[in-house]
Specification:
The chain is α/β, with parallel strands linked by helices. It folds into two domains: 138 residues, Lyase, Ornithine Decarboxylase, Chain A, domain 1; 218 residues, Alanine racemase (TIM Barrel, Alpha-Beta Barrel). It is built from twelve helices and 18 strands. The chain is elongated and about 80 Å long. The two termini are 25 Å apart. The structure holds pyridoxal-5'-phosphate.
């Protein structure tokens, strides 16, 4: 989320993002505590979606405690290397075609294999550095990957390539569709374990929800793949990150730019979507959907003005929103407004009001927002 200094950016400087690397490091340390044991799994920190909107280049300094980074594609792999990451990188969606094989020059590359033809592409164009591969089981997500019939066949091919020196390592990869529910992985993990029974190689299954809710299972992983929780947000309904001991890493802030005192029974904003129930002070905040605040969040969505909790009134506009200033009698233009990202107002709460999830809010933020990174305190 680098901010190019063009004119639109300078206009939107009242709305800004802060990314706290101490929070990222704290969340990674929390995860280490969850995983402690004799052979704790290694950690792929998932930084796809430009580190869930936090910016790959921004967050890497907060991830010193993890073992590898998981990215979507080669552009993100390159961003990790430019940011100075030297450890392993797992490409979750690697190899869209045979043309993607030749540019692979990364001695620490791990590729997720979704389809046996990706193995034949690797065989045709042996990269200089043989990659490690993870065979993806289709699981209960049913998006990509080998199914129970084709998995073992793909394994035999990959193993033969490993023995021939074309592949460094063969691992087993699964991703659950319902790890956020207490009963959600039982069947899916049984099917996966049955499919890989007797096959050698490391196993990786657990995302944030599986790590938080299915710790015993996650402890049997050789590598785990947290994403959302590293940024301090919770994938679990009814429990926000701070309630799980996590610290939100991304703060979205703006300012009050105007105050109106409206009489009762007066309409406010487009469509008259809000009508004052009584005489009330209304604050106008310089943030709207152009910045990535969800338009679906309406009247009643919480917001902090000068640290005091109040609510939105009416629809979110393109670059403005209205808030009830009744609880803040001394409000003045210029006062800070927190849209989300503190322990009192986690993004999960805004997401719930907007009918979405925290990851969608983070990745939906405008790339033009100024971003301030708080470095690791020494
Ligand atoms: C995104 C992703 C993760 C991380 O998921 P979170 O729910 O954010 O922890 C892990 N594995 C795969 C395959 C993913 O696509």
């Amino acid at each position: 989320m680098n901010s190019p200094p063009h004119s639109e950016t300078s206009k939107s400087r009242l709305t800004r993002v802060q990314v706290d690397l101490n929070a990222v490091a704290h969340n990674a340390a929390c995860l280490r505590t969850v995983l402690r044991g004799n052979h704790p799994p290694r950690i792929w920190a998932t930084v796809k979606g430009d580190a869930y909107g936090h910016g790959i280049a921004n967050v890497i300094a907060g991830l010193a405690q993890v073992d590898g980074l998981a990215v979507s594609n080669d552009a993100e792999r390159q961003a990790c290397r430019r940011a100075g990451w030297r450890g392993p990188i797992l490409m979750l969606n690697g190899l869209a075609s045979i043309d993607d094989v030749q540019p692979l020059h990364d001695p620490e590359l791990h590729l997720v294999i979704h389809h046996p033809s990706q193995l034949s592409w690797l065989r045709t164009h042996s990269p200089d550095h043989p990659p490690s591969v993870w065979l993806r089981y289709v699981g209960d997500l049913n998006y990509t990957g080998m199914n129970t019939c084709t998995y073992r066949q793909a394994y035999e091919i990959a193993e033969a390539m490993r023995r021939a020196g074309q592949i460094r390592m063969v691992g087993h990869f699964n991703h659950y569709a319902q790890s956020d529910s207490v009963d959600g992985i039982r069947r899916a993990s049984q099917q996966f374990m049955k499919t890989i029974r007797g096959l050698s190689g490391p196993v990786s299954t657990s995302n944030s929800a599986a790590l938080l809710l299915h710790q015993e299972h996650s402890a049997t992983n050789d590598w785990v793949r947290p994403g959302l929780m590293l940024y301090g947000a919770s994938p679990l309904a009814h429990r926000a990150g701070p309630q799980l001991g996590l610290r939100p890493a991304l703060l979205l802030q703006s300012e009050l730019i105007s105050i109106q005192t409206l009489p009762g029974n007066t309409s406010l904003g487009y469509g008259g979507a809000f009508v004052t129930p009584r005489a009330m002070p209304i604050g106008i905040v310089a943030c709207g959907y152009v910045h990535g605040y969800p338009r679906q969040a309406g009247t009643g969505t919480p917001v902090l003005v000068n640290g005091i909790r109040t609510t939105l009134c009416g629809h979110v506009c393109m670059d403005l929103m209205a808030v009830d200033l009744t609880p803040i009698p001394h409000a003045e233009p210029g006062m800070p407004v927190t849209l989300w990202g503190t322990a009192e107002l986690p993004a999960e709460e805004i997401a719930r009001h907007a009918g979405t999830i925290a990851a969608a809010l983070f990745t939906g933020l405008s790339a033009n927002l100024p971003i301030h990174v708080i470095p690791i305190a020494t």
